[in-house]
Specification:
Two copies of one chain form a homodimer.
Chain A (H helix, E strand, L loop, with lengths): L9 H5 L15 E3 L10 H10 L12 H11 L6 E4 L2 H12 L5 E6 L4 H9 L2 E6 L17 E7 L11 H10 L4 E4 L13 H4 L3 E6 L12 E4 L2 H10 L7 H12 L1 H24 L3 E2 L6 E5 L6 H9 L2 E8 L8 E7 L3 H15 L1
Parallel strand pairs in A: 1-11, 3-4, 3-5, 5-6, 6-7
Antiparallel strand pairs in A: 2-8, 7-8, 9-10, 10-12, 11-12
Helix pairs in contact in A: 2-9, 3-9, 4-5, 10-12
Chain lengths: 357, 357
């Protein structure tokens, strides 16, 4: 039956699948590989979810208006600036489909979120991976206009590095290029500032968010975009009508409303990160300064893949990232380690000491 | 700021948005316009959802394996035959993106589910709307090979008509055409038979399902595809990694496991439909024989749009469907009325009598 392949679009047959981080089952693993929050969400979320089970036989609000009202209030914009999605991956998919036609181009820094590349491939579009310069700052090449460039993805803070691009640079990028710029702020709640205010300065700047990391809701799938209402209007045509469900709308609305929970959670994670980084350095890692709930640890004295494997064998799952093969050239490899609870990080460091002998 | 438009793909700017049926808020409306189940889902679903709130900070299973195991068991296939989605609209989107490239074609009968057309437009593809023949059966034109035809959508039972195409005809269609055929079985639990068995006879036949209708879970967003594992493998590359959330996976798995709930629910709805159809006919409607949880009611003696409006003014929401403007020519218009509870249908009929007065 292998001739079924001929019915698929060739782009789909040829592309490598995007592989999310491993999700082991119920096994007793310390899971520091996908930047989940180690703490459960605000207890109010659970109440909201239970309440939302009352009317599951009815379709949800296609525009998730309750959420948009809370988000608009938080950012001082109108609800028409907000588009909700089934995780921010859904938002990134909608953006790619809306802005980038086949054989057109999207730009992304390297190394960053591998999904951007996958989204271009699914769309039959091209991607321009442009290497970061020193300290994970944008290289001059990133500012150069190119033929058929239709969209830029700029993760800020970036993964795997945890680093940030400052807002003046983002505005400068927007003026240099003739296309919209998506600032992917998946991790921004752990960072000192966010870019939503830039939308008013340049309406081609758009900001994506997720509740998967800082709100402890990876399992719920809820993300959103803040952008100029005219753009939101077009994107509504591209999204599935009911792309967010009644439960996730209720849970996400409640989570976003509980900013005191967020503040407390973030401060716990930053405190753990503050303890974790110097100890990794003591163990011989180079650790990039992080503005996120993970750290990027590399070393030049020995390969890190065996370290990842040895940790895994002892029930500690971190993310081994191999950036040696790319159109943008090699960037080397490293370990991206999520900030867990103090207990999880202590356990990881103890095992790591043993591994490094 | 109206020059933002220039950044969008022209296909997106030009296309008309797909409009789902109205979703009024908490107002006291008898809602018979979007074919929701009038009854709440199996009570076990609620329990499963509450249980699933325990681990929301973790990503869900990307492949929704618990659900695939139950579905595979139900159909006597392997879990590798099943792909899960965020509603069957997500599945239809994935199929379009995987099979139909820009300027290629997809085929759909007319009148049927308007979303198929929208999906082609978003993709920059073409659609061939081919009018149904008499009694909503496929016309000979539907079997004719055409240049660049890559995918066929065949809703079965169809909406708005509630009618079915028999399985021999579907197999004949598959042999006539050189492309995959999606049998969209959103409503099939209300019908006498389903097409999953056809996949083994022709692996180009694929079947989509939703839990929105027969399982009373429109608010949860869960649908799935049953197809040859080789096709499923390719489609996994196109779906968002975490396209179904932890709550919907748990709820959907439990709902599908509770087949006795399904049986009882379907028989209640069919009983109500059995009472509803003759009374609509007495009131002067032509009612197509329905194999679904809705009926298609038309009349030649007077326009139906004012009837829809008069019902709406009195708090009864049915769906007015206007099929007078299409590349396939006019089909006329009608009212698609969901089968509610006995009480809701009695109320609708009473108001309708007054309206027709």
């Amino acid at each position: 039956m292998s001739d079924l392949k001929k019915y698929l679009r060739p782009e789909i047959v040829d592309m490598a699948p995007y592989k999310p981080g491993e999700q082991p089952g119920a096994a007793k693993v310390i899971k520091l590989n996908t930047n989940e929050n180690p703490y459960p969400p605000s207890p109010k979320v659970r109440e909201a979810i239970v309440h939302a089970t009352d009317r599951l036989e009815r379709y949800p609000d296609p525009l998730a208006t309750s959420f948009r009202i809370v988000a608009a209030d938080l950012f001082g914009v109108s609800p028409d600036h907000v588009l909700c999605g089934n995780g921010s991956d859904d938002i990134l998919t909608i953006l790619t489909r809306a802005f980038v036609g086949p054989a057109e181009r999207l730009r992304l820094p390297y190394p960053s979120y591998i999904l951007y590349r996958t989204l271009a491939q699914i769309q039959g579009a091209r991607f321009e991976e442009i290497r970061f310069g020193a300290d994970f700052q944008l290289s001059p090449e990133f500012f150069v206009r190119s033929d058929k460039l239709r969209l830029v993805f700029l993760p800020n803070p970036n993964s795997p590095s945890g680093t940030m691009i400052d807002h003046d640079t983002i505005l400068q990028l927007a003026s240099s290029l003739d296309c919209p710029i998506v600032v992917d702020e998946a991790y921004v709640d752990f960072a000192p500032n966010h870019a939503v205010g830039l939308i008013a300065k340049d309406p081609r700047i758009m900001v994506t968010r997720t509740l998967s990391k800082s709100y402890g809701l990876a399992g719920l799938r809820f993300g959103y975009l803040v952008a100029h209402p005219e753009i939101i209007g077009f994107l509504r045509k591209v999204k599935d009508s009911y792309n967010t469900d009644a439960i996730s709308i209720a849970g996400a609305t409640t989570a976003l409303s509980d900013q005191s929970w967020l503040k407390e959670n973030v401060s716990k994670i930053l405190a753990t990160r503050g303890r974790m980084v110097p100890r990794l350095k003591q163990l011989g890692f180079d650790v990039t300064e992080s503005h996120t709930n993970f750290v990027w640890a590399t070393r030049s004295d020995r390969p890190v893949k065996p370290i990842y494997e040895a940790l895994k064998a002892q029930g500690i799952l971190v993310r081994y990232m191999d950036y040696t093969q790319s159109t943008a050239g090699s960037w080397g490899d490293g370990l991206r380690i999520s900030v867990g609870t103090d207990g999880e990080i202590d356990a990881m460091l103890m095992v790591l000491e043993g591994v490094l002998g």
